[in-house]
Amino acid sequence: xxxxxxxxxxxxxxxxxxxxxxxxxxxxxxxxxxxxxxxxxxxxxxxxxxxxxxxxxxxxxxxxxxxxxxxxxxxxxxxxxxxxxxxxxxxxxxxxxxxxxxxxxxxxxxxxxxxxxxxxxxxxxxxxxxxxxxxxxxxxxxxxxxxxxxxxxxxxxxxxxxxxxxxxxxxxxxxxxxxxxxxxxxxxxxxxxxxxxxxxxxxxxxxxxxxxxxxxxxxxxxxxxxxxxxxxxxxxxxxxxxxxxxxxxxxxxxxxxxxxxxxxxxxxxxxxxxxxxxxxx
Length: 281
Fold this sequence. Notes:
Layout: H1 2-27, E1 32-35, E2 41-42, E3 50-51, E4 55-58, E5 64-71, H2 78-87, E6 89-90, H3 92-115, H4 120-137, E7 138-139, H5 143-148, E8 151-158, H6 169-175, H7 203-241, E9 270-271, E10 274-275, H8 276-280
Parallel strand pairs: 5-8
Antiparallel strand pairs: 1-4, 2-3, 4-5, 6-7, 9-10
Helix pairs in contact: 1-7, 3-4
């Protein structure tokens, strides 16, 4: 359950942190990189839409390599996840059917809300469900649009713990620093970075380590946010069930203050809530 929860969270929020780490590592290889290239790779199926990969890198020879990151819980589903990213799913017939159903749902929601038989919140949930059916009915994938746009599409499949599946080696082979492939005794330019250590001497190892660190940091932030929210919920519930005992005011107490000079009680002393001046009267 924990792995599934973490994987779902990666798809929603931590995905961006991992993509940023991979793109920044590609920049350290003296390449041109950008994030989420929008409206450039048009859908070849005349749908009027365009695909937006997570990022793109321009190699030294001008080749554009588009990147899309996916997080998979186990190795058995990695190949299927990559296939869906590349070639999509569903059929155009299912897409048209989902669009017709969405139009009917929207028209029915307007009628029901106008008649008072449905609240605006219920109508919004119904419209949202219809939109999700359209989104899940068909996808043409990213491989064909990127290739028609003159680029190469590569899917990087990662584990929830920052590991790289073997299917992601294509990205590393294309964007790795050229110094990683030269002999140790050669005088060619090598990968250099202020944060490089003995464990990340090559650009390939540096990219793997940067991805793992980004995944670990995102996991920590996720667990800390969940723990904080859970503590606030539990402590808030306990506080609601506790009745605070309010102490009585000083005027209702039984106290007196003796003057330091003659030992007689001062005129402001209280006995059972009544001053001596009141008793003398």
